[in-house]
Amino acid sequence: MGKKVIVIGEIRNGDVRGVSFEAVSAGVDVANGGEVVAVVLGEDVNSLAEPFISYGADRVIAVNHPELKLYTTDAYQQALLQVIDEEKPDAILMGHTSIGKDLSPRLAMKLGLGLISDAVAVEVMGEEVLFTRPIYSGKAFEKEKHVGGSVFATIRPNNIEAKERDEARTGAVKTIEVVLKDLRTVIKEVVQKATAGVDLSEANVIVAGGRGVKNKDGFRPLQELADHLGGAVGASRGACDADYCDYALQIGQTGKVVTPDLYFAVGISGAIQHLAGMSNAKTIVAINKDPDAPIFEVADYGIVGDLFEIVPLLLGELKKVEV
Ligand code: FAD
C-alpha cells in the first residue's frame, strides 16, 4: 500500500536548496505509489512551490507567516507540528543540513518517532524501507530497516539523485495559516560569514586547502581553480586553526561532511578527522609535497609536489580544455 510522505523543504537566500529536491526524490520511492507532500515555510513562499511539483511532489503546502521569514527553531517547530498533525504522514523526510540537524530531533521527539539521520541511500522492498547511513565517521555503513508505523529520516546532500525535472507535472498548492505563540527567539541581524558562491555541502567540485597553503593568500590559487570548475573552496581544520580561512569552510569530523563528485585535497595531510568529512567523495585528487602523507591512501589520483607549482599548472591545462 502506498504511503503518504511529507518532505520538509528548505529555503536559503530565497531559493530552494538542492537537497530538498533530493529528499522529494527519496520521498517518491518511499511513497511507493502513495502521495508526496512538500511543505515550504517562509514569509511569502507560494512562488517556490512549483519546482517541488516538477521534481515529483504531488502537492505542496505553503506556510506563510512573518515569523517564518528567517529560520528559528521554535517557530519552524511549531508550524511544522501543526502541518504534520493535520496531514498525519507515514514518513517525514528532510535534508541533513544545519537546519535539518537542528529541527529533526526536536520534531521527532515531539512526535514520538525515532529518527534515522544522515541517510545516503533509500531502498523500498514492499512494505519495508531500508535506509543506509554512515557510522564510525564514515568508515562503515549500516542499514536500518523500517517496517510499519511512521518514520522520520534526514537525507545527506549530494547522495540521492534528484529525479529529472518534469515541467509538465501538475499538483495543488495550498496555503495554510499557522498560529505561532510564545516564541522565544528573536533574530536581530544575520551576518553572512561564509564566502559567497557555491554552497560547500552541495558542491559537485571542492578544492580544499590545508596548512600547506601557508597563509590566507595561499588560498587564492585554490579559489581560482574552484571558480574555473564551478566548485567551492573548503579547508582542513589545520588551515582554519591557523586563521588562513573561516571555520565555515572546515570539512571533517567537527566540520562539514561533503560528498562531491570531485575533491581536491591540497596541502592536507589526511588526518582521520579530516577523512571523516570527505572520504566518500566520488573522486579524490591529493596534492602534497610529502609522498608519505596519509591522504594518498584514500586518493584516486595523487600528485607529489609543491602546491604552488602544481595548482597553477593544473588550472592552466584545464583552461585549454572545455569543462
Ligand atoms: P597538517 O597535518 O599540518 O598537514 C599539512 C600538509 O601540507 C602536510 O601533509 C604537508 O606535507 C603539506 N604541505 C606543506 N607545504 C606544502 C606545499 N607547498 N605543497 C604541497 N603540500 C604541502 N581536522 C579537519 O580537517 N577537520 C575536522 O573536522 C577535524 N576535527 C577534529 C576533531 C578532533 C577532536 C581533533 C582532535 C582533531 C580534529 N581535526 C580535524 C584536526 C586533525 O587531527 C588535523 O590536525 C588536521 O586535519 C590537520 O590539518 P592539515 O592537514 O591542514 O595540516
Automatic annotation (TrEMBL):
Binds 1 FAD per dimer. One of its GO terms (molecular function) is flavin adenine dinucleotide binding. The keyword Flavoprotein applies. CDD domains: ETF_alpha. Signal peptide: none annotated. The keyword Flavoprotein applies. Transmembrane segments: none annotated. One of its GO terms (biological process) is fatty acid beta-oxidation using acyl-CoA dehydrogenase. This is Electron transfer flavoprotein subunit alpha/FixB family protein.
